[in-house]
């Protein structure tokens, strides 16, 4: 009985663009600068987190806490300072290997912080989810249906009590 000689398939090498995507901050969409890892293991640029913290300070119940912009998991800060979050050395080392040890991301243009704050506000609006303006008609219809069901139930109950009185 001859055995088939099947060579194992070689794993597919990831494309450089998919690796580059992993080295991109989800807030500024640029290569990480001073990557900070949160308790949930999501990573962001330190400056992006500072902007996020300033933009959303009113949402945090504690001044020494920050919520992850992606999953909302809280991370503790020391002295309300984003720099107290651990640096993501793995991401930093991959960036250095990919782009060279002397890699410095391009200088950000004037007004970049404001653009990031605007983007964070848009993310927050999108994540806040439901626009209640569109739900008012549906809510009114639901209340109408529920009121109708309650009215029918009350009417049946009244008829039943009247019927019971008539039979006695």
TrEMBL record:
Gene3D superfamilies: Zinc/RING finger domain, C3HC4 (zinc finger) (3.30.40.10). Pfam families: zf-RING_UBOX. InterPro entries: TRIM45/56/19-like, Znf-RING_euk, Znf_RING, Znf_RING/FYVE/PHD, Znf_RING_CS. Keywords: Metal-binding, Zinc, Zinc-finger. Residues 25-72 form the RING-type domain. GO terms for molecular function: ubiquitin protein ligase activity; zinc ion binding. This is RING-type domain-containing protein. It comes from Didymodactylos carnosus.
